Amino acid sequence: MIFKSPFPDIQIPEVDIPQFIFTSNRFVANLDAPALIDAVTGRSVSFNSLRETSYKFARGLVGTLGIGKGDVIAVMSSNNLDYSSVLFGSLLAGACVTTINPSYVSEEVLFQLQDSKASVFIMDETCLKSSKDALSGISPDRMFVLSDNTVEGVSSFRCLLSDTEVALPSFTAEELSCSPAYLAYSSGTTGQSKGVILTHRNIIANVLQIHETLVVARTGADEVWLGLLPFFHVYALTTSLHSAVYEGIPIIVMASFDFALLLKTIQTYKVSTVHIVPPIALALAYHPAVDMFDLSSVKYITSAASPLSKDIIEALINRLHTYVIQGYGLTETSPAISLGTASMTIRDSHGYFLSNIEARVIDTETGKELGVGEQGELCVRGPNVMKGYFNNHEATAASIDSDGYFHTGDVAIVHESGEFTVMNRIKELIKYMGIQVAPAELEEKLLQYPKIADAAVIGRPDELSGEVPVAYVVLKPGVTCTEDEIKSFIAKNVASHKLLRGGVVFIEKIPRAPTGKCLRRILQQQDLEYMAKAEE
């Protein structure tokens, strides 16, 4: 059975992302209005300035560096006012952008730079200092810092801004559908991140799909969105940054999460729409500090990355008198597959499939198509589904079937109302705060520690963050080792979202199949028993 969206199909224009955004009626109507506002300083960039800087940056990339189609530009930065100009300017120059998590350590940065074949690296000052060991493969004259001035010998990106007219590339319809606009890296069960090819058409489709669903949720001329979630992640990249600029809506930019600043920002700027993840939703629902601020401007809260419980949703509604909308998606789907609406009948569902999306639910063992009310793996097809994994045909073939359906690895159920709910995941990936963590990567690190003979990592459910990684470790004979010792070793070698927040459990043997594959289901059951005993 094929499930379809209740929303009408939309036409997707054959244009590139910057042209799509910069010529939208809402963008043009708000040229002199602020597009991006720094939450701390109040400094702003107008829609017109955003467009002009993007074109100047593109001209510099083409005229000075010779950037064009096929080139990849890496951007590593926390949220700031210049982020979008660098993205759109790079796309105007014909390049593809790979966004790098600013919390990555040098080894992780180096892998993404090499795998994506990036030839230009743009970073903020903090990332410049933290990723020095990864810069050997990038020519010094192709490294730039998101600052007004040169930092530690690295030129400001502003030195590329050019008023000299140069021919900027145009794209054929085939290029818009096939060539990467963004390479967004998604953790794989093998431990190595995979570059997800998101095309101009993918991103434009998803912006329009979101618009079609939320058009009834517009709060009027005073609409203001919060830019708290990290722009490097496709959730914020599409649903916050691209969508807000396309809609002509100002976005309040926060460089990092600070709950007190979040509350103050909402009150000061009268934020109307908040895109968040469940841990922040939990804080908004129950933290006593909320009562010290006026959050009455908030009309819509959109949460994604992991499910919100019905209790938290109801607590948010009762406390803030706002609509709470859940979304669902993956990096491979640009990311949104569904969004809730104010008319949902199942409050904690993930809403309805977006326009132009078709879905199947299949039996996880036989592949048989299932119907309404039956649980199985969710598979989706639509214009927002990635082109594939970068230079990884095997992984692409394993994820997208011959009918064009992307297999999400998530178990879901479609209800009679057309809404659906994601129940759990088939894949082994851990989701901490909505960011994927590959157990195999952490296991590889653990086995590098001289005292460890074997190790396995699983996700432990956590109310605040969705899941936290916990390591089960077998020590080598005759050695002693503490939990803190292992956690400290891991902390020095991975990004912060991969830390062993669930702790370390020492056991005699990791359960494995005859092939050597870790039997994670057995380990997860053991972990449930371990936690139950710990609570006694």
TrEMBL record:
Looking up PROSITE patterns in the UniProt record yields:
AMP_BINDING
Mention any Pfam family matching this sequence. Answer: AMP-binding
- Which GO molecular function annotation, any one, does this entry have? ATP binding
The family database entries (CDD domains) matched by this protein are listed as: Firefly_Luc_like
Which residues belong to any copy of the AMP-dependent synthetase/ligase domain?
A: 31-390
Ranges of residues in domain AMP-binding enzyme C-terminal: 441-517
Q: Does the keyword Ligase apply?
A: yes
SUPFAM superfamilies of this UniProt entry?
Acetyl-CoA synthetase-like
Q: What does the UniProt keyword field contain?
A: ATP-binding, Ligase, Nucleotide-binding
Asked whether the UniProt record includes Cytoplasm among its keywords, one would answer no
Its family?
A: Belongs to the ATP-dependent AMP-binding enzyme family.
**Can you say what this protein is called?**
4-coumarate-CoA ligase
Q: Which organism is it from?
A: Batrachochytrium dendrobatidis (strain JAM81 / FGSC 10211) (Frog chytrid fungus)
